[in-house]
Amino acid sequence: MMYTTGKKVRFSLFGTSHGPYVGCVLEGIPKGMPVDETQIARDMELRRPKKGIGTPRRETDSVNIRQGVHNGRTDGMPILMIIENADTDGSKYLKFARTPRPGHADLPALARFPGYDIRGGGQFSGRLTAPIVAAGSIAKQLIGRSGMEVSAFSRAIGGVTDCENRDIADAAGSRVFATRACTGELDAAMEERIVSASSDGDSVGGVVECIATGLPIGFGGIWFEALDTEIAGAVFSIPACKGVEFGRGFGLANIRGSESNDSFFVDGGIKCGTNNMGGILGGMSDGAPMVFRAVFKPTPSIAKPQRTVDIERMENSEVSVEGRHDPCIVPRAVSVVEAVTALVLADQMVRDPERGG
User: Fold this and answer.
1) Burial (Cβ within 10 Å: 0-12, 13-18, ≥19) of residue 48
2) How high is the pLDDT of residue 17?
3) How far is Cα of residue 79 from the mean position of the Cα atoms in its chain?
4) What's the rounded Cα separation, in Å, for the pair 172 and 153?
5) Number of domains making up the chain
């Protein structure tokens, strides 16, 4: 089974956590575009778990481009990418077919899909974000040709919050830190919260902030094809995402229109005095940086005992999760947020090349 999004730049995802591989098909990338596979490898490395704060599962995450790229350039055919799964151990998951894990997709998946392969979370696993990052890397290269750039960072982890205003250079600078924080001090504080939760057999969540620049005024769509609509839908598709807000988001409920409206002025072009709207008005770019945040829940796989049910005996039970899991998925989710954002921007750009620069 494949899961597809996009209209002109179409992305289709396939595979399971403990199957032989995960992969994707990326369609609609213009013929003749150079593809930097070294950049793909760098983006894949950012998604990999970091020692001490990530899962012990170790995958090489080497991206095998099977078709669609020839001699370093796209050939106009769909791009097929495969990433092998090697470091798998499904034995510890089998009991969850009877005692589903709270916070996971186990219970509805077992009810919905007869014969559901629960190992590693099956098709609901974060493992499937690996090909998303690979395809997103190519999408970044495409939109970069029109002057667009996407970067994200960890705004908050485990109650440690970055309270400073950040720009896209700050977000790009987070790539040197394991937690994807913007400073060394925040990185150390966030890492401490992750390690502390892990030592307690628990987990923490957090917030990823994403910034996109270079979007011309009028770029995007309206109503069901609005830029923020499609971005939000793509980000919500990332496992563990439970909320998305643009600009000041829910904070807008507590201020007046005279405070929330972003004023305009001329300075070598039309500019915005503030960016409370996150760079989007009516589903289209107003020329300011597009800024949004996504909240990710604490990793549901934890060692602490939790109440559940035995679905064969139909009685109350208890479960604890063994195995290899991230005590916080936020640092790895940063690169995935960047990827899905780039895929949406690429799709909207190809659908409306006049507004894409």
Assistant:
1) middle
2) 83
3) 20
4) 8
5) 1
Whether 197 is covered by a domain: the verdict is yes
Residue 357 lies in a domain: no
Entry pTM = 0.95
In a domain, 250, yes or no: yes
Give me the percent of the chain exceeding a pLDDT of 70: 97
CA 184, chain centre distance (Å): 23
Residue 268 lies in a domain: yes
The CATH number covering residue 281 comes to 3.60.150.10
Domain extent for 165: 2-351
pLDDT, position 92: 76
Token output for 8 = 């002109």
